[in-house]
Amino acid sequence: MSICSNITTHEPSMNKKNCLKPLRMWIDGKSYTIRKYDKKKYDCMNQVINKTGDEKDKQFSTKIQLPPMYYSKLARYRNPQVNSVQNETNTAIQYPSSGNDGFLEIFGDSEESIEEAKEQIFSFLADIRNQTPPLQFISIPLLSDEIKLSFEKFKKNILDEHHKGVEESIFQNPLKLHLTLAVFTLLNDQEKQQAVEVLEELKNMFHKIKTPLIINVKGLNCMNNNYSKVDVLYAGASFTEDSNSDESLQNIANLISSSFYERGLCKEYSENVKLHMTLMNTKYRKKKGGTPKRWVKREPFDATEIMKQYKDYHFGDAVFDTIHLSLMTTQGEDGFYKSIASIKL
Questions:
Q1: CA-based max dimension of the chain
Q2: Alpha helices of 132-246 — where are they, by DSSP H?
């Protein structure tokens, strides 16, 4: 049975070419389509700021509850832009001081002016979220003994060959091998609960398909075309011919990602998920003290000979039986990332 045919909320078809989709964001219990943030517009508007009427003089109002981080960022970086919105829409906008819980409130002379102010504020929130590092992600763990052993062999071979810029610290932990399907910046318990609910919906969907589904990991590629200066080296993945699926792994990955997009939870979204098992990443590189290098320019490595010798390297197969909602840069008791939630297929 095709699981893609069971989903009616995801458009366009996953078999069509990618097209741009609007940014969506979960805000106070609802998924909104977000207007693109136009920094140049607000830079120009900031040159002339007029005072707006007091909120007591306004006949209409609305309130939105946000994670405290947004209030902090609005106060610190967006105050001039918020003033611009008030000036343009003849509204009064209030929100808690930095770090406090509460509501963002908009007061206006009409529902239309409030709606316009709200849309502009939402574009600020989306820009703040996009500038915040990802905190969680959805993945398919690839932790079969075959894949882990093949990875360790690959790692040893590469280290023995002494390629420029390659050191042990930039290799992935074999207990964390996975395919990333979507990344998030979920800032409070309500947003995390929405992600868990989507995961449960996916569980119900996957109950309708035959198992097992077997993922084959094979072949190397880089996130850029210049093999002499590489930051991320990864392996590709697809279903084996023995898998009982009417859909490709690519279609299923797209559909999972799209489920979180529709709910407004994805930090970044592409209709065509890049299926990759990260092997080496220069962001893992550690300084002499043993800690990862932070806030410094990455040091790429030369993968020219690696790509020549290992382009078709076969890592092996793993059963696709789990989808994992994980915390970034963590490690659980089993060596994989700490879990917020997971489902078994």
A1: 74
A2: 145-161, 189-206
In this predicted structure, the answer to whether residue 47 has a pLDDT above a threshold of 60 is: no
SS3 content of the chain, % helix, strand, coil (to 5): 35, 25, 40
End-to-end CA gap in the chain: 15
pLDDT band at 293 (very low <50, low <70, confident <90, very high): low
Comparing CA positions, the residue from 277, 342, 307, 305 lying closest to residue 144 is 277
- Residue 52 confidence (pLDDT) above 90: no
Looking at the DSSP bridge assignments, the partners of residue 94 are: 105
Look up residue 303 and give its two tokens: 């993968």
Q: Write the pLDDT tens digit of every residue in 24-37.
A: 999 999 999 999 88
DSSP 269-313: --SS----EEEEEGGG-B-TTSSBP-SS----B--HHHHHHHTT-
H or E segment to which residue 216 belongs? strand 214-222
Q: Are 174 and 151 in contact (CB under 8 A)?
A: yes
Sign of CA pseudo-dihedral 292, 298, 302, 308: positive
User: At CA 300, angle to CA 294 and CA 304, rounded to 5?
Assistant: 160
Give yes or no for residue 205 having a pLDDT over 90. no
Prediction pTM value:
0.87
Cα 334 from chain centre:
23
For residues 132-138, average pLDDT: 95
Residues in the chain: 345
Q: Is the pLDDT of residue 7 over 70?
A: no
Whole-number Cα distances in Å, 115 to 37, 78, 112:
16, 19, 5
The dihedrals phi and psi of 174, each to the nearest 5 degrees, come to: -60, -20
Question: What three-state secondary structure class fits 103?
Answer: strand
